[in-house]
UniProtKB/TrEMBL annotation:
Domain (Tyr recombinase): residue spans on this chain: 1-176
Pfam families noted in UniProt: Phage_integrase
Highest taxon, organism lineage: Bacteria
Protein name as catalogued: Tyr recombinase domain-containing protein
Organism of provenance: Rhodovibrio sodomensis
């Protein structure tokens, strides 16, 4: 599987499209103690703002447990070998502190360029892709709402899981090109 470097030693193989986390706010604040590889879960307990300050999620629903898909377990296990053993160590880090969101966005732009993606896709769009894939595969709405960290299912389904067919195709192409993975569903299937 192809991988290329990202800030903090992360690789493009650790695809957020498979975990539903937005790398920016939530994953930047992810600490070793939040990852349970045996239970295949991540506890979202904090987020990082644009200045790198750690905060609580915006709402109580934002504090949640997110499932780790099987393909990401070994990738996270490998990543954690590079992280200090202190439970409060950040999984994605520069100089011991959390990554700043600007670092993530710069890396995303470089990865899109590296993958030959001409259209500028927002990193946050991968979160919408995740919700759309779950909705199109029949994930129970309340379960998806909880995984996404929303208090109201309308947020999940009106904002995140309603993407135009061509946008889903572009997100799939970008995620696959950057992550070097096989696309999980055809755009027509994901948009229905």
């Amino acid at each position: 599987m192809h991988s290329s470097p990202r800030p903090g030693g992360a690789t493009t193989r650790s695809s957020p499209r498979r975990s539903g986390l937005v790398f920016g706010c939530r994953s930047c604040a992810l600490q070793r103690r939040d990852v349970d590889l045996e239970q295949r879960t991540i506890k979202v307990r904090r987020s990082a703002d644009k200045k790198g300050r750690i905060n609580r999620p915006k709402s109580e629903a934002g504090r949640r447990i997110v499932p780790i898909p099987e393909p990401l377990v070994e990738i996270l296990r490998e990543r954690l070998t590079d992280v200090d053993t202190d439970p409060k160590s950040y999984v994605w880090s520069t100089s011991g502190g959390p990554l700043r969101i600007e670092q993530v966005y710069k890396a995303w732009g470089r990865l899109l360029g590296y993958a030959g993606i001409e259209r500028q896709l927002r990193w946050h769009g991968l979160r919408a892709y995740y919700a759309t894939c779950h909705a199109s595969r029949g994930t129970e709405p309340n379960a998806l709402m909880k995984i996404m960290g929303h208090e109201d299912p309308r947020t999940t389904f009106a904002i995140y899981a309603r993407i135009h067919r061509e946008d889903v195709g572009a997100m799939i192409a970008a995620a696959d090109a950057v992550a070097g993975m096989t696309k999980p569903a055809a755009p027509a299937e994901a948009a229905e």
